[in-house]
Amino acid sequence: MYSSSYYLFHICFLFIISSTCLAQTNFHPKAFFLAVKQDPSTLQYITEIQQRTPLVPVKLAVHVGGENVWVDCETGFKSSTYKPAHCNSRQCNLARSTSCGDCKTKNKTRPGCNNNACYNIVSNPAMNNTFYSGAEIAEDVLTIQSARGPVVTIPKFIFSCSPSFLTQKLGEDVKGMIGFGQQSPVSFVTQLASAFKFSRQFAICLSSSPQENGIIFIGHRPYLFAFGFDASQDLFYTPIIRASPEYYIQVSSIRVNAKTLQLNNTLLSLGGTRISTAVPYTELEPSIYRAVSKAFISEMPKNVKTVSPVAPFKTCFNSSFIGISPLGLGYNAPGIYFVLHNPNVFWTITGANSLLLVNQGVFCLAFVEGKKETGEAIVIGSYQMQNNLVEFDLARRRIGFTNSLFFRQTMCSDQFYTS
Ligand SMILES: *[C@@H]1O[C@H](CO)[C@@H](O)[C@H](O)[C@H]1NC(C)=O
Ligand SMILES: *[C@@H]1O[C@H](CO)[C@@H](O)[C@H](O)[C@H]1NC(C)=O
Ligand SMILES: *[C@@H]1O[C@H](CO)[C@@H](O)[C@H](O)[C@H]1NC(C)=O
Ligand SMILES: *[C@@H]1O[C@H](CO)[C@@H](O)[C@H](O)[C@H]1NC(C)=O
Fold this sequence. Notes:
With about 425 residues, the chain is an alpha+beta fold. The chain has 2 domains: about 10-200, Cathepsin D, subunit A, domain 1 (Beta Barrel); about 225-410, Cathepsin D, subunit A, domain 1 (Beta Barrel), CATH 2.40.70. The protein is about 15% helix and about 35% strand. The strands form 4 sheets. The chain has a 15-stranded mixed β-sheet that branches. Strands 14-17-26-18-25 form a 5-stranded mixed β-sheet. A 4-stranded antiparallel β-sheet has the order 16-15-21-22. Strand 7 and strand 8 form a beta hairpin. It starts with a helix and ends in a 15-residue tail after the last strand. One 2-acetamido-2-deoxy-beta-D-glucopyranose binds near residues 318, 320, 361 and 362.
């Protein structure tokens, strides 16, 4: 079983030696947050943590289904508190080490290359074909901002120390990935929940502008936006359906306006629907893509003509006659409804999340045709989640959606925590 007393001892120890923390001995934060912003070149969502001694800011790409936090230790990693996990230690077990031994690549130890250290496997789903690598399991200091209190220190945060090549396709200065997977004891949310004794949950709210911060809430509600609106009141839930680090839900059908699409139900239930922040646009298995595209085109007003597609999209429109929704919901577009485990529970995708202006005069349906070989029916990507709040409630094995915050005249950048 995972014990958190280890962290608590060290947190208290730090409080005692630091006079500013002395007054905080009884402070038990139950909620934290991270600012998150889209990298315009890679479309990955990036957050920044403070790590090491002395503390430095480290940019990491968000991966909700990731099992661990991994950081490039090969280039520019300096810390006086870095500690590799020794073979067969508790840390190796928690981080599911796959191998153990001496680092033979160079005749000199450094972070990421020590003797008698254990390794696990880390991957970058943003890279072509998904690259894997062994990475040294280690501990170091990490700090995080609590939602209604000070910055809090976790002295021995467990992470994996990866080679530099794995950071490709993440964006400039991005040094790794921060995983929020549900099963691993060392995912970011699990380590925080264990250290501070709150039930495992987090919520993401991705901004649509690369200039403006969205937010990841970790821990307890509320999720406060402008004028005190608490987005948790709008959440509707669907169960998490698989035992996997990644998050799968049941999409049982899709509607476009009032039309229910004829889809392969076996594919929908067996293939499943995954939620991924590493994928910029929702991927639909080819037969599902074709059905959505066809219905979307036929439900568009007749004067909106299709035009030559612009990759990676396959369904594009002349923008001249696309209107803006009078309700402030983005572009006027047919509504796309993902019906979840129950016919009365559906996620609504409006024009702001279904259409993308790709260049002057051309809008595209912001969904892509996935590869048949993956077997997955749907991978919900970040564009469709922008300005929606999505809660991952691991303890109760369910995922909550709010629908577009535009319905509430607010958006993910419109909160006082990170803006
Ligand atoms: C490692 O470095 C030491 C000291 O610099 C040297 O004596 C030794 O031969 C080196 N070993 C290898 C395998 O290069
Ligand atoms: C992966 O790489 C191949 C060859 O370089 C390229 O043709 C393909 O488009 C790439 N796929 C993605 C998703 O980047
Ligand atoms: C439906 O999907 C399943 C699973 O991918 C596949 O085996 C089957 O052939 C599909 N049925 C049709 C009619 O396409
Ligand atoms: C869009 O329609 C307008 C008006 O009919 C036309 O002038 C323009 O060339 C069209 N744009 C594209 C990309 O087809």
